[in-house]
Amino acid sequence: MISRRNLLLAAAGSALTASGCRNRNTALTAKQKAFPVITVYTPEQIANSKQITQHPIQFHDVTTTAGINWNFNNGATGHHYFIETTGGGVALFDYNNDGLLDIFVVQGGPIPGNPNTQPFPKTNALYRNNGDGTYTDVTKGSGLDAYTGYGMGVSVADYDNDGWPDVYITAYGGNHLFKNNRNGTFTEVTHVAGVGDTEGKILPWPLSSAWGDFDNDGHLDLFICHYAAWSIPLDKPCLLEGQLSYCRPQVYQSSISRLYHNNGDGTFTDITEKSGINAVPGKGMGAVWMDYDDDGWIDLFVTNDTMPNTLWHNNRNGTFTNMAMQSGVAVGPDGSPMSGMGIAPGDFFHNGEDSLLVVNFSGETKSVFKNIGHGIFQEDSYQSDMASSNLQFLGFGLESIDYDLDGNLDVVVGNGHVLDHIEVLGEGSTYAQSQQLFHNNGRGKFFEDIHSLGDLAKPRVTRGLAVGDIDNDGDQDVVMVAQNGPLQVFRNDGGNLNNWLTIRLEGVQSNRDAIGAKVSIDTSHGTQTARIHGGSSYISHSDIRITFGLSTVTQITGMEVRWPLGHTQKFGALKANQFYYLREGDSPVPDPRIKRA
Ligand SMILES: [Ca+2]
Ligand SMILES: [Ca+2]
Ligand SMILES: [Ca+2]
Ligand SMILES: [Ca+2]
Question: Can you give the pTM of this predicted structure?
Answer without folding.
Answer: 0.94
